[in-house]
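Dear U.,

For the methods section draft, I wanted the exact inputs and outputs in one place so we can describe them consistently. I've listed the two proteins in the order they'll appear in the manuscript figures. Please don't edit the C-alpha cell lines directly; just add comments below if something needs changing.

First protein:
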Amino acid sequence: MNESNLASMLVALDKYGDCFGMDRPHRLAQYLAQLMHESGDFRYDREIWGPTPAQQRYDTRTDLGNTPGKDGDGYLYRGRTGMQLTPSVIGGGASLLTVIGGIPWQNLLLILVAFGAIAGFLYWRKNADRKAVARVEGMA
C-alpha cells in the first residue's frame, strides 16, 4: 500500500465525500471496494503498462476516446488516479488532451489530488451498480 495515495484519498473523502453520497455507509463500502480493486490497494495511481495484449488494442479503440490509427494514444490516455480514469470516462475523449502550464491533463489529475478524487467520485456516482445501491437503501 502506498500511504501517500491512501492519505490523499482520505483527505479528499473527508472534504468532498458527502457531496457525492459517501456519507452513506453502504455507498462508501461500494466505492472503497472498487477503488481498492482499481488501485491495487492504493499502490497505483496510474495504469500499469505492459503493454498487455488488451492494452495493445487500446490504441485503436475509438470507444475509449482514442483515434483509429496506431499512434500511441492508448498509452498516452492510459488510466490515471486510483480509479484509473481515461479521457472518455471523464467525458471528452482525445479532445481532453489540454495542456495547462505545460502539464497534460492526465498529470494534473495526479498533481491536483482533489481533482483526481472528485473525478473518481463523479465516475463512481455515474457508474455505480444502481440496483445494488437501491436494494441496500430500501433496507435502511
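Second protein (the one for the lower panel):
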Amino acid sequence: MALPLSCSIGEPLFAETTYQPGYSTSTQCFRDEYREEYVPGTKEKPGHVRNWTEKVEIPCRSNSSARKHPASKHSSKAQNVDDNSCIEGSILGGLLGSAAGAALSRGDGRWIGVPVGGAAGAMLGCQVDGG
C-alpha cells in the first residue's frame, strides 16, 4: 500500500496563451507540484520514497498576466459595459407592489391583485434602482 503525499512549495507559475488573429484568446496557467509517495517495504526489502513533479492547471490571476498580442489595436478601445443591476429594486418593488395589491383588492380580486401588483412593483422598482 502506497501513501501519497503532495506538497507545493512556492513553485513558479507558468502561463500559456493561445492567440489567433480574428479568433478568441485563451490563457491557461500551470504550476509544478512536488509529489512524494511512500512505498512500504518488508524486512528483506526496505521501503522507499518515490518523488516526482506534476504540471497542474490552476486558475489564472487576472492582474498577474498582462495580455499582449501582436495586433493590439483593438485592446486600447474602451468597451461599453452595462454593469448596472436593478435586482434589489425589483425585489423591493415586487414586495411592496404585492402588498399594495393585497391591500387595495377585495375578495376574489386578490387572486389577480397580488400578482399584478408584484409585477408592476418589480418593474417600477427596477427603474427607480437605475436599471
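Candidate sentences for the figure legend, describing the second protein: Strands lie at 3-7, 13-19, 25-39, 48-58. The radius of gyration is 30 Å.

Thanks,
Y.
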